[in-house]
Amino acid sequence: MKKLLKMLSVLLISILTVVALSWPMHTAAADNVIRNATFTSLSEMQTRLGNASESLSWSPVYLTEVENYYWTFCDQNALGGTDISLNLAKNAYRNLEMLLDDGYTMDYQVLKNYCSEYLQKTGGKEDAFYKVLTDCLSNPYLQNRPAATVTATTYNGRDYSAVFDAAYYYQNNPDLQKSIGNNPPELLRQFVEQGINQGRRGNASFDLNTYISQVDAQVMQSMLSSSAWKELSADHTAPLGRYSYSPANYYGKFLGHYEAASADSTDGTKSSDSTSDTTITSDVKSTSGVYNETSDKSVYTNEPISSTVANQRPLAVMIPTDSSAQPSYGIGSADVLYEIMEEGGISRQMAIIPDWHNLSRIGNLRSCRLYYIFAAKEWDPILIHFGGVAYMKGTIDAPDINNISGTYEYGTGGKAPGAGFFFRTSDRSAPHNAYISASGILKACKRLGYQTSLRSDYYNAKHFTFTDTENTLADYSNTQNASVIDLSKVFTYTKTRLTYDASTGLYRKYLHGRSQIDARTGKQLTFANVIVQNTIWKKLDKKGYLEFQMIDDSQDGYYFTKGKAIHITWKKTSDYEPTRYYDDNGNEIQLNTGKTYIAIAQSGRKVQFH
Fold it and tell me: Residues 53-76, buried b or exposed e (16+ Cβ, 10 A)?
């Protein structure tokens, strides 16, 4: 505890001693700083810091999260420590990015001078904090503050479409109609550089004040539930309980702009805005040669596909089936969708999405289970999930798996690779409001050293066998009618059902008696092929965690297409080998061109159809 407090005090002293920022909206006098009401004056600050220097310059923009801990929990005997932790250095970097969001007010020369001063203080030792600070200097928007590159939805490559709509902004700001006109890129520029701090609203769906209230409530709850707070006397001054002094920083948090981690909390747990990466450099898990896919037909659907999409790794995204979590964003982009039962009598989905670079909001996202990893491996995907369970240890963290997780990757431990790139929204309550964007995934892959092109050691060019014409199953003597596929005895909570639409030749999917739709497009999920894969399973413990035998050659199932069904068997021989499906004559079934839904059914739970 005392060691952490020393770390906090050193970081705060270092930053406060050097940072002099121009503040566009609240330029505060030195003795009237907007901050924790308990310590507002310069003299009081100096007293607390044991520093009588008159040269200190204050700004209302501070490392707010560090300030929360420092001013609430710091024992004055902890002042004067010399250690600094890497997580705190990363938190400083995250907050320096936040400062850049404030209209790029961070002064380059001030930071550069401090880097030199700090190096002198360390006796020339380029420690972790020094490296973080010098890395900040490479940000081009600190140097001469060049004009930002802006499109109708992006500002310096950052996607603002979730919080900004140019038509809405133009219509609701008459003064900008006169000064800027109906010019979407320039309206976005005004919004980012001035409008946010002016309190202007960017679109009809995102309410900043509501989001601020939710975030600050979470910060305060985290502070009050920490062991450090519980150790204090009942009359101790309450924590600051605030994420930031800047509205721009809340936008940055919501949009997932801040890559680096927050500080560890005083009770040893991670804050909700942090990653658990322990190094700033890339954590490279595995690389292999690049596979060059030359086919112009998708291995997932047999549909025409661009070379770019054909040669990029797909996503495998964990998505809930909970009624309160519907609808999900981006699930309609899945070319292959798995649904498997988990503990608690509820199923979960894994969406295999090959064409994902245009998705600004993917999810909501939930945790993974071990058997999903084995199902995912045959596609060589980048696995997107929000934690997991202890049974995943040794598999999810193996060198061949490239995963991005919003929290500890196997629930009770492991890393949280790329956690800083997830974001939460205010339109739903946790845990059903966690998302990630394509840009966030790409940044995480770059940070983690993940290969986004197909890996030659793991990629398979052939999964399904597709027909060149149309398979109506008319050639089979045992064909059965299947206009309705009822999985209510397989997935008892969702009562998953698919109905055949003869006008399109596709099956429409339903959850909880309602059409399952993609929130991004508003369209119902449809599939050309439906596979029910009966699978050996067992319960692992009293909590009800399940195990499915995903590598097997003894089980059967059904294949559905064009309103008909046939009995099949399936076979999977190793992790990265595709699952093969065979008719009763021993031939691989021929799927129709289009998307495929695969229900992994617990052996003994029967699908009904008619």
Answer: eeebebbbbbbbbbbbbbbbbbee
Question: Scanning the structure block, which residue is given the tokens 């409530």?
Answer: 217
Architecture of domain 465-609: 3-Layer(bba) Sandwich (3.50)
What's the farthest any 2 CA atoms get from each other in the chain? 93
Tell me which residue has tokens 């590598």: 551
pTM summary value: 0.59
Q: How far is Cα of residue 483 from the mean position of the Cα atoms in its chain? A: 38
Lowest mean pLDDT among 80-89, 363-372, 519-528: 80-89
What's the mean pLDDT in 275-285? Answer: 35
Tokens found for residue 377:
């491996």
Q: How far apart are CA 424 and CA 7, in angstroms?
A: 29
For residue 386, name the pLDDT band (cuts at 50, 70, 90). very high
Give the phi and the psi of residue 308 in degrees, each rounded to 5: -60, -50
Is the peptide bond prior to 327 cis by the omega test (within 30 degrees of 0)? Answer: yes
Angle between helices 64-73 and 2-18 (to 10 degrees): 130
DSSP helix/strand/coil, 578: coil
Q: 484 is written with which tokens?
A: 């309705």
Rg over alpha carbons for the chain, rounded to the nearest Å, is: 27
Q: Where are the domains of the chain?
A: 2-145, 307-448, 465-609
Architecture, CATH, for domain 307-448: 3-Layer(bba) Sandwich (3.50)
